[in-house]
Amino acid sequence: MSAGRKLVIVESPAKARTIAGYLGDDFDVEASVGHIRDLPQPSELPADMKKGPFGKFAVDVDNGFTPYYVVDSDKKKKVAELKKLLKESDELYLATDEDREGEAIAWHLLSELKPKVPVKRMVFHEITREAITRALENTRELDDRLVDAQETRRILDRLYGYEVSPVLWRKVRQGLSAGRVQSVATRLVVERERERMAFVAADYWDVTGTFAVADDGEPAFSARLSALDGVRVASGRDFTDRGVLKSEAVQLDEAAATSLVAALDGAGFEVRSLETKPYTRRPAAPFTTSTLQQEASRKLRMSSRQTMRTAQSLYENGYITYMRTDSPVLSSQAISAARRQAAELYGAEYVPDAPRVYTSKAKGAQEAHEAIRPAGDHFRTPAQVARELSGDQFRLYELIWKRTVASQMGDARGQTASVRLGAVASDGRDAVFSASGTVITFRGFLAAYEEGRDVSRYDDDAAPADEKDARLPKMEQGDPLTGRDLAADGHRTSPPPRFTEASLVKALEERGIGRPSTYAATISVIQDRGYVTNRGQALVPSWLAFAVTRLLEENFDWLVDYDFTAEMEQDLDAIAAGDKDRVAWLTRFYFGDGSGSTEGEGLRDLVANLGEIDAREVNSIPIGDGITLRVGRYGPYLEDPSVLGEDGNPRRASVPEDLAPDELTPAKARELIESEPEGDKVLGTDPTTGTTIVAKNGRYGPYVTELLPEPEIDPSLSAAAKKKALAAAPKPRTASLFSTMSLDTVTIEDALKLLSLPRVVGVDPESGAQITAQNGRYGPYLKKGTDSRTLASEEALFSTTLEEALAIYAQPKRGRGATATPPLRELGDDPTSGKPIVVKDGRFGLYVTDGVTNRTLPRDVTAESITAEQAIQLLADKRASAPAKKKAPARRTTTTRKKAATKS
User: Fold this and answer.
1) Taking a C-beta distance cutoff of 8 angstroms, is the pair 434, 420 a contact?
2) 3-state secondary structure at position 207
């Protein structure tokens, strides 16, 4: 063993590469690539354990909630590599992230590697040379309380998911999931859609005009009618969601507003009151995980998942501090760096005398100890990193830099003026108009950054942005005004806006539900499960989400209660702080308090005592006019029991996938049912197979299919065997109609052509791979192995020749809706592959490629400086580091949870 060698283990290869550049030759920096161990699926347990205490959850709930961990099958090779390196080392540094998840990864590494050398826990919140040096000099012991906190959450989520999800499988649909935070997040989105469905719009009118003082040198301004005969004029805020006026305001209709405009024609206006006051606006605090996700969604149109993935890349490559934090606090070095940079870029007058100090408003704020900011004691400006970062990385870094610098700048200052002006109409009515304007006299932090905001349902009531910032003319009470362009304007109240990812993250954080570091994963889960879809930035719940939420509300009410979920989060924080015992808490959650009362019931008894759940009722949503929407196995459909079809059953109609729940009004539902063909439209017989070909309207639009005879299943088979036999039975061919076709005009010839897809175009002479033309959910395309290319039209599915297909594949691949990026440089042919080497700018930065192997350029190499020899060597190194073929799986390593002591 070489003397003085030190092994440093981090989570990711990118983090390892960056840190290795700051350490000496006596350090080996390796990545665990995330967690190496986890709770196994019960089906993955050894045979002798499946009937034991770990058989249901991989957690022994009767003996202190002891978990049973196994090394993930795809991590066994990595664990073996780490053990080999550890044998050649004199010290082990566990340098995983400093939050609960990172501490847990370190504990699992310690438990599995079983080091016989001194072990040190090394933590840092940014990856710079200075930070890594400080971390080496200030190591600590493993924090068992953080490990307990992470493990308690993992066990809690396993108990919740494994007890509740099977109920969803039986009563709604296979493959669904329930979770401590995801189910509550889904309920929030569903409740908002319910509000929109119940919403009744109200119409109201107002009057606007343009006014001016006698001095032609002063600007004209717009004002809106605010009171009539001393009574305030109603705006959108004055109506309930049922369309009822809820205040003493007067509601104008079109006739009243129009008559008022006519009566004010030629009236003399005067200033009734004028108020001016100082305007001050303070900068927003530096980013936390939650506010970064919100602002990236508003300003950059990035999803939470995309934001966190990009932020992680920036952190691991040394550009920003750790991206999972609840704290807006900046270190003294960061405050100095931000103030210094603000003074250099904007002037000393833009920096306040005293540093700004921010504190967290979030419940139970913890995780890391500092806000998300540019890394280092001296910030690099966006211009300085522009050549090193590309795409999302640069945009997110620029956002973080602007927010951080602005947080230490001076207030924006100015004056806000509010004026009330009035006139007596010819019919004797007294009309009062109001206007306000703000003039910024010192921009302060606004010179660097202005925080975005979410859409408000009452935006229509507010003055336009250009009017808010408009300068009002000099005037005094009693001054005469001239009015022109008086107009009556009609408005309709708006329903509550749907959640966006930004506003959902904000709502979860305000309620204290979950952790900001997990919000991106939570939103991804409810999207991947089909509970919500995106319409632009809005989150629209599916009818499936309605069924799941209803089942949980009616049978697991406290599990999806907002306050209970927030209290659960506080309890988990108390466990992390050592104020609560995790075993006692899990016992109360799962087994109850032993009182036998409903209030003291635990999750186990709640599931056991559910009683009979009417699956049909749970999956039914009344639409109105006697029509019911049902969530079926193949999607939602409408049913009207008052109208029977030829077969005597209620008429049914599929619900288009792109129709949002609040758009399915009783009138729309009636339209869908009446337009649905009664029964299948028989087109004819396939001369080849003899099967009947029919046209139908389905969830994804009209389609054609063939009718196959019902498979003959042996009635003596068990339920499982019958299910397996049905799965093995032949499936009917099915094809969607082209956009140019309709159910009314489609013919048997059209149907047979559609059912002939996919069509074999030919064979690629170079690779020998078959090329086929196929029609998919996103349109027509060619497929060769795993390589797909879009076709220009649906008709091209039948007309594209092999030569045309090969020409398409010869072009650079384009993402959907994107154009190919031309190479930045060409470096000649690669001696190994014989293909041309080019330098390209990709999503994650500059890289070289020969079309087969890609290799990211080192940070100190640019597109202009790299030589052909360097490129050839980089590609050769990448090929050499490619994973070897997998061997037969070895026996799974298992460990039960017990405390592990660290060595120093």
Assistant:
1) yes
2) strand
